[in-house]
Specification:
- There is one protein chain.
- The protein has 275 residues and is of the alpha/beta class.
- It is 39% helix and 15% strand.
- The chain is built from ten helices and ten strands.
- An eight-stranded parallel beta sheet has the order 3-4-5-6-7-8-9-10.
- α1 links the parallel β3 and β4.
- Bound molecules: NADP nicotinamide-adenine-dinucleotide phosphate.
- NADP nicotinamide-adenine-dinucleotide phosphate binds next to α9.
Length: 275
Amino acid sequence: MVTLQSTVTLHNGVEMPWFGLGVFKVEDGQEVVDSVLAAIKAGYRSIDTAAIYGNEEGVGKAIKESGVERSDLFITSKVWNADQGYESTLKAFDTSLNKLGLDYLDLYLIHWPKAGTYKDTWKALEMLYKEGRVKAIGVSNFHIHHLKDLLQDAEIKPMVNQVEYHPHLAQLELRAFCKEQEIQLEAWSPLKQGELLTDDTITSIAAKYEKSPAQVILRWDLQNEVITIPKSVKEERIIDNANIFDFSLSEEDMQAINQLNKDERVGPDPDNFDF
Ligand SMILES: NC(=O)c1ccc[n+]([C@@H]2O[C@H](COP(=O)([O-])OP(=O)(O)OC[C@H]3O[C@@H](n4cnc5c(N)ncnc54)[C@H](OP(=O)(O)O)[C@@H]3O)[C@@H](O)[C@H]2O)c1
């Protein structure tokens, strides 16, 4: 974890960057093109999109315009709930690839654990993986019980679980379970969508290191061995957020941030969503 391009080796040997750009709620067209281009220019190599974000075309356009080799980038997308099931997932994957203008994905995730369907969806992801159309497959928003259920029938173990994760939601049990299973944890809404940036503990630690609150939180993710994908549409923030490889938080400051945990979410609980 020494540069923005440092990677973690997933359990199937694929190298995934520790740090990336999220593009949830970024408009398709110029806004997403500019954000992705700014990120790649700043050295980001990993981009996290999803079919439901409606901006895969813009992400694809920026990838082309960036001039960076496809093999040097790590592109994630996700199958939306309405498309879950075996055949419909295969179709949704093709649609995402077409929109992105790519011939493979680096990571494809089941976006939410839709009851009764996610095992069929997983079979489709296993097929896409065996065909070499995606380098790694994983899940998102899976609790331990969802993972245990999936693992009962899975031929291939998910390589990644992308979940809401930030100092107010430290996911201690899930993190331990994933570590034991070699499923890499990835944080969504790492900044709690901005809410944590004014927290007193975070701002005082930030002042001590002469870093921004966002940098302190994102550094905490990495020191906890959690991949992180903050979103911003502002170039200066995109650059600032990634500037976290030149300092490290002391054990004491890591503990102070750990103490902020209150199991509080900004998004829905995966046991109780209605979409
Ligand atoms: N799998 C899932 O179900 C799921 C769910 C949610 C998100 N995600 C993924 O995770 C990514 C990140 O999560 P998120 O977008 O929800 O939230 P986030 O990254 O925690 O926060 C983004 C918000 O913080 C602001 N921000 C970013 N950097 C900042 C800085 N340095 N200073 C001040 N404000 C800053 C952004 O505003 P500006 O853009 O105006 O800078 C935006 O409003 C998403 O984009 C998406 O790729 C996945």
